[in-house]
Amino acid sequence: MQVTYQLKILTTALFSVSMLGKRLGLYQWLSLLFLMAGVTLVQWPTESEVDSEQAILSSGSQFVGLMAVLTACLSSGFAGVYFEKILKETKQSVWVRNIQLGLFGFVFGIVGMTVYDGERVRESGMFQGYNTITCTVVAFQALGGLVIAVVIKYADNILKGFATSLSIIVSTLISYFLLEDFNPTSLFFMGAMLVIAATFLYSSERKPANGNAIKV
Fold first, then answer.
1. Which letter does DSSP use for residue 7 in this model?
2. CB of 176 within 8 A of CB of 183?
3. What NCBIfam families does the database record attribute to this sequence (predicted)?
4. Domain boundaries, the chain
5. At a CB cut-off of 8 Å and minimum separation 6, what does 159 contact?
6. Residue 198 confidence (pLDDT)
7. What local confidence, expressed as pLDDT, does residue 197 receive?
């Protein structure tokens, strides 16, 4: 299922072509395939994770799980590209759009909190268990959301996908050097090389017959 979910990289590219009229060359399509393969290898589960995943699959329907993952790939690609279309084709600023989306998230979050944890919130408050680290993580998440919106407005979802893939590698390296809770495997190094190669390939240039360099 983890391999299948990486199809969201290609669905994002397909929606970008169909909804935004973006043109991708051969090198860029190849780079997206390399990126998908690289992210899959980097996130490939260990033996214990594979055993737990097989146990989950054996207790449920593999067909239903596959359909759910494919639906998630399509919905993720469509949502990202539609958000990009709204940001680039309307006059409202990034800040206004983020406030609008944040209001929807706030409403749904309040409803979910009330339904599932309403009693605990009334007893101990909404911010029970919060400390400095928790507040720092929340702040970074909020800042990351704003940065993503800026990237989508002034670049595109495909470049965001490359940045996200590189961030996965950086996160795992930080886990290895600082937290010491990750042991890189040969698949991780192969995946990292594919992601880096895909990044360079996507931005590569070729020269046509007249000698002028154009993007592909």
1. T
2. yes
3. nst (TIGR00803)
4. 2-215
5. 151
6. 92
7. 92
8-state DSSP, 92: S
CB 39 within 8 A of CB 195: yes
Q: According to the model, what pLDDT value does residue 92 have?
A: 79
pTM of the model: 0.76
Contact criterion met (CB below 8 Å) for 201 and 27:
yes
Cα angle value 32/145/122 (rounded, 5°): 135
> Given this model, what pLDDT does residue 165 score?
87
Q: How far is CA 111 from CA 100, 119, 123, 193, in A?
A: 17, 13, 17, 44
CB contact at 8 A, 113 and 178: no
The gap from C-alpha 37 to its chain's centroid, in whole angstroms, comes to 15
Buried b / exposed e over 185-200, threshold 16 CB at 10 Å, is: eeebeebbebbbebbe
The kind and range of the H/E element at 215 are strand 214-215
- Which residue from 153, 157, 17, 147 is spatially nearest to 91, judged by alpha carbons? 153
Q: What count of residues does the chain have?
A: 216
